[in-house]
Amino acid sequence: MVTVLLSGGLGNQMFQYAAAKALAKRLNTSPAIDLYPLTKKTHATIRRYELGIFNTDAPIVSTLRGRMLTKARPYVQKHRAFFRRFGLFTDTYAILYQPAFDSLKGSVTLSGYFQNEKYFKGAEADIRDAFTFRHPLEGKNKHVAGLLTATESVSIHIRRGDYVQNANVASNFITCDASYYEKAVTYLCEKVSNPSFYIFSDDFDWVKENLNFGNHPVSFVDWNRGNKSYIDMQLMSLCKHNITANSSFSWWGAWLNANPDKVVVCPDKWFREEKKNAMLKDFYPEGWKMI
Q1: Are residues 146 and 122 in the same domain?
Q2: What residue spans of 105-160 are helical by DSSP H?
Q3: Which of 134, 161, 190, 291 is the 20 to 30 A CA-CA neighbour of 56?
């Protein structure tokens, strides 16, 4: 069995599940999910289990190895090669692929973020099947979905929220500014004829005060809140093209977009630390435009 210790928000949980699903496929076994890290108090944003919106097939388990690895993670990371012999695998930087992942065998417990497509390369079809949304769209969302498929729709994700309100989060992540979105919109308009922009954000006041979309049609999708927030990702995935934030939420919205001719624009900076930003070229899927 491959057990993944789930942590973070929806986008992060998707990366973790995808890595476990792909590894389980290679090892001819099944994935399982341990929620113990979600019960731990941290300085980051409080999170809950969110994968229930999908047709995933992994059972929820509670394991002693999971508790031990969560509590001893810094020590395990320091001696990663040694603990890998016993089926305990951690990542280092979240977006940096670890080639040792390819040599894992037997019963494995994963702890980390695994935010790199290489962790599930070769299992994309399985991941897309697993990440089909369980509930059909209704009401306004169903109406918007029809518009998305009928036009050259472009999702724009603006994440601010904890990036500007939580000092611990802000010390690690930058907040994409108006300049990034203006350059992204300009690039999209050069590549796509007659685009229609659909805005997804947690701070629409900032968007309306700071961003200019010229004469192009703009719609603000501002009604999916609380436990319905995931529907924003569902709608992003139905857009023809995507402009992402430095957010795993919009990364997945763009990745799930099945348009073979999609144009995806993504920020060339996520982090305060430039050493981490230098890893982004290996983090984004082939063909995405960094700005």
Answers
A1: no
A2: 124-130, 139-150
A3: 161
pTM over the 0.90 mark = yes
Q: Tokens for 96?
A: 């940096």
Residues 259, 162, single domain; the answer is yes
Residue where the block lists tokens 């690690």: 172
110 class by beta-carbon count within 10 Å (0-12 exposed, 13-18 middle, 19+ buried): buried
Tell me the residue ranges of DSSP E strands in 45-185: 60-61, 88-90, 108-111, 152-158
The CA distance from 70 to 179, in Å, is: 39
CA–CA separation, 97 and 76 (whole Å): 18
The CATH number covering residue 177 comes to 3.40.50.11350
Residue 15: strand, helix, or coil: helix
Q: Residue 176's domain spans which residues?
A: 139-290
Q: What is the pLDDT along the chain (291 residues), one digit of tens a residue?
A: 999 999 999 999 999 999 999 999 999 999 999 999 888 755 445 678 999 999 998 999 988 888 888 888 889 888 989 999 999 999 988 899 999 999 999 999 999 999 999 999 999 999 999 999 999 999 999 999 999 999 999 999 999 988 888 888 889 999 999 999 999 999 999 999 999 999 999 999 999 999 989 899 999 999 999 999 999 999 999 999 999 999 999 999 999 999 999 999 999 999 999 999 999 998 999 999 999
Residue 167: what residue type?
A
For residues 253 and 166, the answer to whether their CB atoms sit within 8 Å is no
Q: DSSP secondary structure string, 224-256?
A: --GGGTHHHHHHHHHSSEEE--SSHHHHHHHHT
How far is residue 31's CA from residue 108's CA, in Å, rounded to a whole number?
A: 10
What is the C-alpha to C-alpha distance for residues 16 and 5, in angstroms, rounded to an integer?
Answer: 8
